[in-house]
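ingest -> validate -> predict -> emit
validate: passed (alphabet ok, no gaps, 631 aa)
predict: started
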Amino acid sequence: MSVRGTRIPPHLQLPIAGVTPPPTEKDGQRLFPTGNFRFYRPVYRDKTPPCNNACPTGEQIQKYLDYVKHERYLDGYLTILNDNPMPSVTGRVCYHPCETACNRAAHDEPIGIRSVERFLGDYGLALPEDPIAGTLPPLNGTTVAIVGSGPAGLACAYHLRRRGYSSVIFEVLEKPGGMLRAGIPHWHLPEEILDAEVAKLVALGGIEIRCGVRAGRDVSWDELRSYPAAFLALGQDVGRRLPVEGIEARGVTGALEFLREAGLGRPVQVGRQVLVIGGGNTASDAARSAIRLGGGEATIASLEAEDELLIVPEDLIQAREEGVAFAPNTSLVKVLSEDGHVTGAVLCDARLGKDASGAVRPELIPGTEREVACDTILIAIGQIQQLEWLPDRLSDRGVITADEHGRVEGNIFVGGDVMRGPSMVVDALGDGKRAARDIDRVLTAEALGPEPEVQVMSYQGLNAAYFRHAPRIEAPLTLAAERRRSQQVEVTLAYSQEEAIAEADRCMSCGVCNGCDNCYIVCPDVSVMRDTRENGHYTIRTTYCKGCLVCVQECPTGCLEKVPEMDFDDPADVTRMETAFAPYDGAHAEQSAFTNQLIEETIAEYDATRKAPAGNGKTTFTPNGDSGVRP
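emit:
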């Protein structure tokens, strides 16, 4: 059947010329100069890299790694600042969930993202001027109250400032920083780095920090409610008590309080035989600090088994290197003392159990009691916040209750440890960022909504053949013998510029175009155009594309995908041809359903009329409504 010169009704016109001849040879050559047999077309659709998705602050990690790879450090630093105001801090203390999620781990080893972040953060702190200062909007006259100058409070103030709001932060300590200063040792996070990051935020203008102000004593709940909006970021700075015999003896103290006194530079007394009770990061930090300050030895006794410890793995390794001993599946039964001072402890074997309410309860094993000598006991079994100043309905066992948006009531939001329980710095930074966004929404009468869904790129979606295997560059460490002698010596050191570039170059750019030019090079019909020499700046000339999908197969990062032609409905996205054939895989010039139905109906009508002869014995049926009668 010839289709040359045919005209198809608009309701039968399809969005492409699947496999059919064009209506005229001339039109066909104009629309598809190299011919067309396309059922799918290649489309650039960036996905979300797993590192970005795992970061609680939503950092664009792939993007700043690409900038570092090309030695564009300022662009990389500005990229981080979109989501995280203090990369020099997180580059030292973040537990890097991004690295745990990194697809590179399935290839060889995850990328040292935290160390690259530290490199950029320190680069930014060394700049003579803050590069974002001139980009901020003017203040809009609205001031938000923030309780707590820890990571959640500082992040909220920063992101509010970027939206034009001023803020006043109430901090109970004499210096800002919250648990960054009072809970993280100097050898993890040097005080001068924290001071520099805080000073950079205050210098933006519109952020006031009032130290020595306690919520509930110096500022009331009603006063906070009088502000247009408020954010509660108190943290949890009170260690839980352990109800055992002799716990009131001198030399027994909370690990959190011990770290706070040391972090604030106050004189701290610690013995040479230290016993730390707990199995988390606070226990590890306290034991390592005790060795530095007391010059002796420290043992961590935990209900958790060795493989259940909640200590960040690299910190656990470093603690062992520094001489910290571990007594897993062990409980403190009694504190021994003489003249009111600790002389030892009674320990016994135990398991980590829970009661009906879910609270942790030790399951002691009778007959395993034993005495150990110690002169200091540090308790690190969790922490809470004193919330008696809040209405009873808003707090529950040391945490503030909130809805799924972190809203307590009205325009008051909460975030950080006081909402989620003991967590990490980067979690609190993410809470502060989201609170600033939602405060802006309620103040501008915009509805609160959930986080948008994203498509996370898997390792299986990459073309791994394009990525050579390369070992991870580990961050250098100060020798254990040297670092255990001083509270001031930083344990983890920085990447050099060369190391940062090399490690960033290992990034697979999962799901995001990295400008590799593969699609541009492999296309047999010159259908891929490189608009500019930048990532993602390619277009497909659909009039030349045959749909061979070589570009999709050879895309290393998985950002190119095949999309059925029939998915395109926007007139601007398609080339419409007057043909009634079906464009789908395996069609091979099969007629469309509409046309097939018309043909079948016409044949049925023809067959019916042949069985009913007219007056002269001849059929009167002709297609297209022609009566067949001639004058």
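The mean pLDDT is 86.
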